[in-house]
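Posting this for the archive.
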Amino acid sequence: MPYGVQQPAVSGQIQQLERDLAVRLFNRRPFRLTATGEELFAFIAPFFDGLPAVEERLRSNVPHLKIAAAEPMLRDHLPVVLRALRTKHPKLQISLRTGYEAQLQSWLIDGQIDLVVTALESPPPRGISLRPLISLPLALLVPRRMRLRSASELWARTRLEDPLISPPATEVISRNFQHGLTNRRRTWTPSIIASSIDSVARYVAEGYGIGLAMVDGVSAARVREIPLPDFPPIRIVALWAGQATPLVESAVEAIVHYVRHRWPGMKEA
């Protein structure tokens, strides 16, 4: 035993555990695990196997920040933010995690993540702090060869017959778009559900239909944006649980600085 615990104390703890679980964990002669004991050992072994790495990380006192956001945000925008953050915290360790909007807040509440950057439709739960970042108008993406130049031309049509390419219905952008259509007493059901704005843009560029996005949300060369200024915009915010740590505060400041330079003149969320 590497922990300085005497054998009688270990035996007593094992016996108490067997009484609590109402199972037999060990055969004494010969001394070996029962099938139930094997199952319990397999469950707890990863925890103890990981202790040395955790101990080393804690002893090194290296700052660690866990950030979650949608994949396009992590790929296209966070690298610049993290570069600026590392100038202030050179030894910073960063963990990035991507997910859908519904997942991100649950990870924050569970303590799996320190900071979330996401679209927000309604106020966050109690205990979650919020920093508005930017409000991005919705836009339609059309192939550059398409003659459609404005949303008013589209709404003047009796029927919306072009295939609609949209992110999943669970995303804020899709719900806001459908709210805007309802206000206009129009219906337009998606023909293609894409996993991201980038996927929407790719399908539009290939001529599969008209796509739903945000203003300046894509950089595809073969598509053109048609803004929807009278539709509910997308509010992008930073979220964290409880009192912000100095590291989270630094990250939020870096994100705000990036947003103001990336989208000058855009409204704050």
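The first strand starts at residue 26 and ends at 27. The chain has three domains: 7-56, 62-135+234-262, 138-228.
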